[in-house]
């Protein structure tokens, strides 16, 4: 049961199918240029408002001198969101449920911010290790705690996104596997529950994309 349950997160064993599954990660990018050529519609205007709101929020956190970073994190949000949303469709590989994918996004960003901060703003980074007002006797412990919290940041980013994607898909798979064994009178309640859970997973896909992007923005602001 456990093997068949978690097999929904496994790419195909053949080399060709394995490449196709991981290439589906970039499927969402192909839709982005269409937004510039598509005629104005409710969805295009909604997406434009979302991007504008994110840009204003990221610009507030990073400062007006780092507009390029704001565009980077908007692209990160869009990429994660498209992959989360595509994973909700039938027979499409959910790449954001794998640590290989999430760590590939989180680790290089975190390492770049840390290296930039320590090389260019060393005193500022040292000041972050000891919060203001910390008693002298607790300073060594605070430095150790802050250092550990900085080191585990890419891991927490990656695990948070992957765990939330895995949990929702497991619930949908478990409910779907109950269908053949249930009497016909209960199928209506099962389908209704699955629809509600799918709506919840759609919200989780959006929220986790935003959380991933906003936390990365906050980590970048500390280095600047």
From TrEMBL:
Top-rank taxon, per record: Eukaryota
Keywords associated with the record: ATP synthesis, CF(0), Hydrogen ion transport, Ion transport, Membrane, Mitochondrion, Transmembrane, Transmembrane helix, Transport
Major localization class: membrane
Membrane topology, from the record: Multi-pass membrane protein
PROSITE patterns: ATPASE_A
Compartments where found: Membrane; Mitochondrion inner membrane
Record-level Gene Ontology MF annotations: proton-transporting ATP synthase activity, rotational mechanism
A GO term from the CC aspect: proton-transporting ATP synthase complex
One protein family per Pfam: ATP-synt_A
Transmembrane segments: 20-38, 67-92, 99-119, 157-175, 187-220
Family, as annotated: Belongs to the ATPase A chain family.
NCBIfam families the record matches: ATP_synt_6_or_A
Record's protein name: ATP synthase subunit a
Species name: Cherax cartalacoolah
Taxonomic lineage of the native organism: Eukaryota, Metazoa, Ecdysozoa, Arthropoda, Crustacea
Gene: ATP6
